[in-house]
Write a structure and sequence with these properties.
157 residues, mainly beta, single chain, ten-stranded antiparallel β-sheet, 10 strands
Protein backbone atom coordinates (compact mmCIF):
# COMPACT_ATOMS: atom_id res chain seq x y z
CA UNK A 1 0.00 0.00 0.00
CA UNK A 2 2.85 2.38 0.76
CA UNK A 3 4.37 4.32 -2.17
CA UNK A 4 7.52 4.94 -0.14
CA UNK A 5 10.58 2.80 -0.81
CA UNK A 6 13.62 3.45 1.35
CA UNK A 7 16.77 4.40 -0.54
CA UNK A 8 20.09 2.70 -0.13
CA UNK A 9 22.24 3.99 2.71
CA UNK A 10 24.29 6.97 1.58
CA UNK A 11 22.12 7.85 -1.42
CA UNK A 12 20.98 11.45 -1.77
CA UNK A 13 17.45 12.63 -1.15
CA UNK A 14 15.67 14.11 -4.15
CA UNK A 15 12.27 15.63 -4.90
CA UNK A 16 10.72 12.32 -5.95
CA UNK A 17 11.83 10.68 -2.71
CA UNK A 18 10.43 13.51 -0.59
CA UNK A 19 7.09 13.52 -2.46
CA UNK A 20 6.78 9.75 -2.03
CA UNK A 21 7.17 10.10 1.74
CA UNK A 22 4.44 12.67 2.38
CA UNK A 23 0.83 12.17 1.34
CA UNK A 24 -2.02 14.65 1.13
CA UNK A 25 -5.03 14.77 3.44
CA UNK A 26 -7.98 13.13 1.71
CA UNK A 27 -11.65 13.21 2.71
CA UNK A 28 -13.66 10.08 3.37
CA UNK A 29 -17.12 9.40 4.79
CA UNK A 30 -16.95 7.18 7.86
CA UNK A 31 -19.72 4.65 8.43
CA UNK A 32 -21.23 4.99 11.92
CA UNK A 33 -22.46 1.74 13.48
CA UNK A 34 -23.49 0.50 16.90
CA UNK A 35 -24.00 -2.76 18.75
CA UNK A 36 -27.77 -2.17 18.96
CA UNK A 37 -30.25 -0.11 16.96
CA UNK A 38 -28.40 1.53 14.05
CA UNK A 39 -27.63 5.24 14.43
CA UNK A 40 -28.22 7.67 11.53
CA UNK A 41 -26.74 11.14 11.09
CA UNK A 42 -29.94 12.64 9.58
CA UNK A 43 -30.17 15.54 7.17
CA UNK A 44 -28.98 18.27 9.53
CA UNK A 45 -26.09 16.49 11.25
CA UNK A 46 -22.59 16.07 9.87
CA UNK A 47 -20.21 13.12 9.80
CA UNK A 48 -16.89 13.73 8.11
CA UNK A 49 -13.52 12.08 8.02
CA UNK A 50 -10.12 12.74 6.56
CA UNK A 51 -6.86 10.86 6.46
CA UNK A 52 -3.31 10.95 5.19
CA UNK A 53 -0.95 8.04 4.62
CA UNK A 54 2.73 8.72 5.15
CA UNK A 55 4.88 5.69 4.45
CA UNK A 56 2.86 2.84 5.95
CA UNK A 57 1.22 4.98 8.64
CA UNK A 58 -2.34 6.32 8.43
CA UNK A 59 -3.36 9.43 10.38
CA UNK A 60 -7.14 9.93 10.61
CA UNK A 61 -9.73 12.36 11.97
CA UNK A 62 -13.46 11.70 12.37
CA UNK A 63 -15.94 14.43 13.34
CA UNK A 64 -19.61 13.82 14.09
CA UNK A 65 -21.96 16.65 15.04
CA UNK A 66 -25.54 15.64 15.69
CA UNK A 67 -28.52 17.55 14.35
CA UNK A 68 -32.19 17.63 15.26
CA UNK A 69 -32.92 14.64 13.00
CA UNK A 70 -29.93 12.58 14.15
CA UNK A 71 -30.94 9.15 15.45
CA UNK A 72 -28.37 8.24 18.08
CA UNK A 73 -29.31 4.53 18.02
CA UNK A 74 -28.45 2.23 20.91
CA UNK A 75 -25.37 0.33 21.96
CA UNK A 76 -21.64 0.93 21.68
CA UNK A 77 -20.46 3.06 18.74
CA UNK A 78 -17.88 2.25 16.06
CA UNK A 79 -16.71 4.19 13.01
CA UNK A 80 -15.16 2.80 9.84
CA UNK A 81 -11.55 3.58 9.06
CA UNK A 82 -10.30 4.78 5.66
CA UNK A 83 -8.03 1.73 5.20
CA UNK A 84 -7.57 -1.51 7.11
CA UNK A 85 -5.04 -1.66 9.92
CA UNK A 86 -2.09 -4.01 9.83
CA UNK A 87 -2.07 -7.13 11.99
CA UNK A 88 0.22 -5.42 14.50
CA UNK A 89 -0.43 -4.61 18.14
CA UNK A 90 -3.54 -2.59 18.96
CA UNK A 91 -3.50 1.18 18.53
CA UNK A 92 -4.95 4.02 20.53
CA UNK A 93 -5.88 7.58 19.63
CA UNK A 94 -7.88 10.36 21.24
CA UNK A 95 -11.58 11.00 21.80
CA UNK A 96 -13.40 14.28 22.46
CA UNK A 97 -17.12 14.34 23.26
CA UNK A 98 -18.88 17.71 23.49
CA UNK A 99 -22.20 18.28 25.25
CA UNK A 100 -23.75 21.34 23.58
CA UNK A 101 -26.38 21.79 26.31
CA UNK A 102 -23.68 22.59 28.88
CA UNK A 103 -21.54 24.90 26.76
CA UNK A 104 -17.75 25.07 26.60
CA UNK A 105 -17.30 23.28 29.92
CA UNK A 106 -19.40 20.30 28.84
CA UNK A 107 -16.95 17.83 27.43
CA UNK A 108 -15.46 14.41 28.08
CA UNK A 109 -12.23 12.92 26.81
CA UNK A 110 -11.07 9.37 26.36
CA UNK A 111 -9.25 7.06 24.02
CA UNK A 112 -10.01 5.84 20.54
CA UNK A 113 -9.26 2.11 20.28
CA UNK A 114 -8.35 0.22 17.12
CA UNK A 115 -7.79 -3.52 17.32
CA UNK A 116 -5.10 -5.37 15.39
CA UNK A 117 -6.10 -5.78 11.72
CA UNK A 118 -9.27 -3.79 12.33
CA UNK A 119 -11.44 -1.80 9.96
CA UNK A 120 -13.30 0.20 12.62
CA UNK A 121 -12.44 2.37 15.58
CA UNK A 122 -14.35 2.54 18.85
CA UNK A 123 -13.82 4.71 21.89
CA UNK A 124 -13.75 4.54 25.67
CA UNK A 125 -14.34 7.23 28.25
CA UNK A 126 -13.97 7.07 32.02
CA UNK A 127 -11.44 6.47 34.73
CA UNK A 128 -8.72 3.82 34.78
CA UNK A 129 -10.23 0.37 35.34
CA UNK A 130 -13.71 1.90 34.99
CA UNK A 131 -13.80 3.04 31.36
CA UNK A 132 -16.84 2.21 29.25
CA UNK A 133 -17.43 2.23 25.52
CA UNK A 134 -18.94 5.36 24.08
CA UNK A 135 -22.63 4.77 23.37
CA UNK A 136 -25.92 6.58 23.01
CA UNK A 137 -25.95 7.10 26.81
CA UNK A 138 -22.23 7.24 27.69
CA UNK A 139 -20.71 9.65 28.62
CA UNK A 140 -24.02 11.53 28.16
CA UNK A 141 -27.39 11.16 26.52
CA UNK A 142 -26.69 12.63 23.09
CA UNK A 143 -28.79 15.40 21.51
CA UNK A 144 -28.67 17.97 18.70
CA UNK A 145 -25.39 19.89 18.61
CA UNK A 146 -23.41 17.27 20.53
CA UNK A 147 -20.07 16.19 19.08
CA UNK A 148 -17.91 13.08 18.86
CA UNK A 149 -14.40 13.59 17.50
CA UNK A 150 -11.79 10.84 17.13
CA UNK A 151 -8.19 11.08 15.95
CA UNK A 152 -5.50 8.47 15.69
CA UNK A 153 -2.59 6.89 13.91
CA UNK A 154 -2.05 3.30 12.88
CA UNK A 155 0.01 1.07 10.61
CA UNK A 156 -1.85 0.16 7.41
CA UNK A 157 -2.25 -3.42 6.18
Amino acid sequence: MSPYSPRAAGSKANTALMESMVGEWKPYTPVWTSGGTAPAIGGDGTLTGRYVIIGDTCHFQIKLTGGGSTNWGTGNYNFSLPVQAAATPDHVGTLFVGDSSVGASGFSTGIAFLGSGGTTVGAYVGAKNAASSISNVNPQTFASGDRIWLTGTYEVA
